[in-house]
Design a protein that fits this description.
five-stranded parallel beta sheet, 11 helices, alpha/beta, about 270 residues, single chain, five-stranded mixed beta sheet, about 40% helix
Length: about 270
């Protein structure tokens, strides 16, 4: 049996009883970073053979692990933090296991995207995990454009050295939207910065970041509740409308006279 085991994303005490039991019982553990996983295993006094399984050796490692499963061995797959396969290695192994008709299951546990969307304070009724943005600009634009008009909350992973650029890019592509940057999830210095894309953000650039962004706004009530008239106008300007159209749309959304919105627009700084 292959066990896909979720591990803590911060606090090591978030291991479940079942996860500890499974890791104690399997014949070997496939880990994204064996040194990182060794720290966790030492915490729970688990001594098992570790096999490297990372994105650079996925195909070769998957074949070796499948061979062990075919011999009747039990194997656990873990990532450095959270649920394997979710923006972490594991998909190649699972595809290979399924192709060979072997058994597998998931051992539930922490996942950064779930914590982040709850901590963000943004709507949780519908959300979509986008993951890490591609490095190439064209691929980044193509990816984000697929989700730009969806009304669900969007979740992006971002390494600390990219987070400022990622926020700027998302503002360019999505316009002014509510957003949150969540970092150090479940650790001592867990922090949530909230604001709007396009704002000047203030947070400590350390640890893995999760950027949570409001979905495409489709209800005027939501805009009215969250934005001043000036912010409302800027929302449409950021999404490509000219000033006249932005004023018209803002007046319609807020059900007020265009003259009132026009007066507010006169005070806008270009």
């Amino acid at each position: 049996m292959l066990y896909i085991v979720a591990t803590p994303i911060g606090n090591l005490k978030e291991m479940t009883f079942r996860a500890v039991e499974i890791l104690q019982r399997v014949d070997c553990i496939a880990a994204e970073d064996t040194r990182h996983t060794a720290v966790l295993l030492n915490e729970y006094k688990i001594a098992k053979p570790l096999v490297s399984y990372q994105k650079f050796n996925e195909r070769a490692s998957a074949e070796k692990l499948v061979a062990l499963l075919q011999e009747g061995k039990d194997v656990a797959l873990v990532s450095d933090a959270g649920m394997p396969l979710i923006s972490d290695p594991g998909s190649v192994l699972l595809e290979t296991v399924i192709a060979h008709g072997l058994e597998y299951t998931v051992v539930s546990g922490p996942c950064a995207l779930v914590n982040a969307v709850v901590l963000s304070g943004l709507p949780t009724e519908n959300f979509l995990m986008v993951g890490f943005l591609p490095e190439k600009a064209g691929a980044r634009r193509q990816l984000v454009s697929q989700y730009a008009e969806l009304p669900c909350t969007l979740i992006f992973y971002s390494p600390p050295h990219n987070v400022t650029d990622d926020l700027a890019f998302l503002y360019e592509q999505l316009g002014r939207r509510r957003a949150a940057v969540v970092r150090e999830i479940s650790k001592l210095h867990e922090d949530v910065a909230r604001g709007y894309l396009g704002d000047e953000w203030t947070f400590t650039v350390k640890g893995e970041m999760v950027i949570v962004v409001e979905g495409a706004v489709q209800k005027s009530e939501r805009l009215t509740a969250q934005m001043s008239i000036e912010e409302h106008i800027r929302y449409y300007l950021a999404n490509g409308d000219d000033k006249k159209t932005a004023i018209k749309k803002t007046a319609a959304d807020r059900k007020i006279a265009k003259s009132v919105v026009y007066s507010a627009a006169l005070d806008l700084k270009e």
